[in-house]
Structure formats: C-alpha cells, structure tokens
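Homework help board

Subject: predicted structure for assignment chain

Our instructor gave us this sequence and asked us to write out the predicted structure in token form, then describe one feature. I got the tokens but I'm not sure how to describe them. Can anyone check?
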Amino acid sequence: MTNNNDNIAVTDLTSALNEENRADLVNALKSKIQSLAGAHSDVLETLSPNVRKRVESLREIQGKHDEIEADFLKEKEALEAKYQKLYQPLYTKRYEIVNGVIEVEGAANETTDESEEDKGKKGVPSFWLNAMKNNDVLAEEISERDEGALKFLKDIKWSRIENPKGFKLEFFFDTNPYFSNTILTKTYHMIDEDEPILEKAIGTEIEWYPGKCLTQKVLKKKPKKGSKNAKPITKTESCESFFNFFKPPEVPEDDVDIDEDLAEELQNQMEQDYDIGSTIRDKIIPHAVSWFTGEAVEGDEFEDLEDDEDGDDDEDDEEEDEDEDDDDGDEEEEDSKTKKKSSAVKKSGRAQAGDGERPPECKQQ
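My token output:
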C-alpha cells in the first residue's frame, strides 16, 4: 500500500504551475525531497554498521549514475533539437509537393486517367485526410461529416514547448466553407515528459460559419398533433467529430469532489486525448507518406502482433497467480485499481498518458 507521505505534494505542484513560477516549483520539490530523505534515513539506522557502509557505497554509485543520466538527458534533448532542424527542409518540400506549390519533374506530362474530383487539381488531394484515416487510432475519430473539412488540411506540424513542458500541434487549413480559422492548435502541458504525465490540454476555439459546425447536430422534431405550436421543434446536440479534439476534457479544480465513476470517465477521456495527440506527433507527421500509401499500416500491425505475443506471456503468468488467489483477492484488486484512478483525477486532475475508452457516440434522434 502506498504511503501518501512518500508522494510529492500535488497541491504544491499545481499552485506553482498555475502561477507559472518555476522557482516556487523547484523549492516545493526540494522541500519534499528533503523530507523524504529524512524519512528514509531511518532505514539506514536499522542496519548493522557493516551493511550500512555497503549501502552508503551503493548510494555513491547511484549518485554517479544519476549525474551521468542527467548529462544523457541534456544530450538527448540537444540531439532531438538538432535532428528536428535537419527534418525541416524535408517537411517543407513535402508541403510544397502536397499542396502543388512545386511540381515534380515529369508529373505534368502524364496523361493517365484522373477522377472527375481530382481532374485539374495540383498536388496530392486529400493527402492528410487519407494519411490519418489509415491509422486505426485516428480513423475512429474521423466521421464522414468531417472528411469535407479535412480535405482542406494543408499541413500538420509539432514543436516542443518549455514553459510549461510539453508540445504543441498545429493544423494548417486552406480557406474553406466550414470555419474561418487558418490554423488550429492543440497544446499539451506535461508534468513529466519521460513518464509522461499529462497536466492538461488546450485547444483552439473553432470559429464555425453558421450552420457548418461539425461537432453539433441540429435535430428537428415535428410538433405533436393538436399542439398550438405548429413550428418544428429544433434541438442542438453534441456529436462525435474529429474536431472535438480541439475541445479537450476540462480538468476540475483540485478542491472539487467528484465521484469515482466521473473520475474514471475523465481519466479515460484524458488518456484517449493524449493518445490521439501523441499518435499525430510520433507517427503521422514524420511518416505521413507511408500512412497515405498504407505502407505504415503493415508495420504498425506487425508491432501490434509483437505486443500481443508479449501480452500472452504475461497473461499466462497471471493465470498461474490467479489460481492461487481467492475471489475476495480479485475484488480487492479491482477496488484498489478504481480508487487509484479516481484519486489521480480527483486530487490532481491529471492523467497518466495511455490508451483510453471512447465516450458514447452521439446518435441522431
């Protein structure tokens, strides 16, 4: 069972981040670490002198390891920044070809048959739409109604942000009949990028043209017979759309008490939201052409098969353990998992990034 005193105070982190005061955050962490060091010193006092000396030697080794690891993380960040710069000219050329800014040598002279929709168009029509639809995670988010708007998507970029830590996605759109924005952004604020632990996500408010909102449906019902009101009754209802991505789940204040069901639902929504964002950042942007052609799908499925094989081994081990446990132990484990998830959202409003379930689909009446 985890001791709450051994966890870094979430309220200290939250206040520091909300005020965007890095100094306060560092001081809060130092204070907590010092208190933890004092608590763990009691362990050393219980050891015999010889064992204590050996443990002290091990701590010195650990300290040297941590110093080397700190250098590794600095070099890793610098290396990532270096290669991001090397990728940029390639991304720029990809943008120019996809959007018909430049023409590939010999392409204009080809006399192959073209569909009526693509005839006369430059570049690669619906490039980003088809790339995303070939990815299982994103395909589930894109409805048929979304496709018309996503055909105007010209480019997707991502960049790292430092204060607070995290990353930003930018979606560049051509002039279209759905909304007036030319750029839609989604920013992820992280507590720890290595874990990673998501604090919150912020999306652009989409400026929809009248009657073009893809995240809502207007339902019309005929009035009942004999009703004085002869006009149809209209009702606006939220529905599933890729563009809900830009309106992420709202994290309640720390002092708001929510029940376990709501906490678990929020946890799942935040995990799913991060999964979509990280998929776009790590898979779609760097390998967009392979997703467009479908080549990346085969590689992705191969990785899934490897994961399934590893999972089967784990399941076999778990089955052996389960035979030794009684039903009461299983129920206690489930209760423990639920309480941990609930506590994570209820106390901090933050989610461990990972896979999550989708909210119920909005259906037309």
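Reply (TA_rk): Your tokens look well-formed. For the description, you could write something like this. The chain is about 50% helix and 15% strand. That's the kind of observation they're looking for.
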